[in-house]
Write a structure and sequence with these properties.
The chain has 240 residues and is of the alpha/beta class. It contains ten helices and seven strands. It is globular.
């Protein structure tokens, strides 16, 4: 299928939940699934058993990646699902609003992904920092633990009920891919590290996380990414 988001399960733990996610996706016409470092390896017979028949086709074509950066490298816009408040500054959508926005992006040819975290703890801050925006599911604050399959079902349902594709929000050629943004972040982080910017050491990890979050949030175009690379190279030449 084309014209749909890819669902990325980040470090899923139980095969049964992967199978349940596949069933939920196919229920609403979605079949683009990627797995990041599944705990019990892959393929997983428990996932196949839970997928129950036709949904096994989603598992058969699922991509398996060692890390999140590789799994989302070709994506232009990435949503991270979380029920918890985050200190990271990003646009926050309800599931319904997120999928409305996703449909507009896809209508323009953008490659959209939705991240789902592991069953026990959800997405790590480092995962969320790589995303363009957050989807917060309005669950009971006294009990916000949501089963992985349920979370996938909810987002897939909101996607499917959106109806016809809306007007595109941005031409696909304008947005930089997640891989290009990650390389930009690597470039700046390496040079700032060499310049002693990340000081004191106890604050370095948080400073790097904030920078990574900033790059992802900006929705940079490919031209802007190249400009920022060039600006840094020129500053380094003059400094040398």
């Amino acid at each position: 299928m084309t014209g749909q988001p890819v669902f990325i399960l980040v470090r899923p733990q139980m095969g049964e939940n992967i199978g349940a996610a596949a069933r939920a996706m196919l229920n609403f016409g979605l079949d683009r699934l990627r797995l990041v470092d599944p705990r019990d390896g892959w393929p997983n017979p428990r996932a196949v058993a839970m997928a129950s028949g036709a949904a096994s086709q989603v598992l058969d074509h699922a991509g398996v990646f060692a890390d999140l950066a590789a799994a989302m490298a070709d994506c232009d816009y990435v949503f991270a699902t979380t029920a918890r408040g985050r200190e990271l500054s990003k646009p926050v959508f309800t599931p319904e609003a997120a999928m409305v926005h996703a449909r507009a992006l896809v209508a323009g040819g953008a490659r959209v992904a939705v991240l789902f975290g592991a069953e026990r703890a959800g997405l790590a801050n480092e995962d969320v920092a790589r995303a363009s925006a957050i989807i917060t599911i309005p669950v009971n604050p006294a009990f916000f633990s949501l089963n992985l399959g349920q979370a996938v079902l909810l987002i897939a349902y909101e996607w499917a009920r959106g109806g016809a594709m809306p007007e595109a929000v941005q031409p696909p050629g304008d947005l930089a891919s997640a891989e290009a943004v990650a390389r930009l972040g690597d470039h700046y982080e390496a040079e700032l590290e060499a310049a002693g910017f990340f000081f004191p050491p106890v604050k370095a990890a948080r400073m790097k996380l904030n920078l990574r979050n900033m790059w992802a949030r900006l929705r940079l175009t490919q031209a802007e990414v190249q400009t920022l690379h060039g600006m840094l190279r020129q500053l380094l030449r003059r400094g040398g």
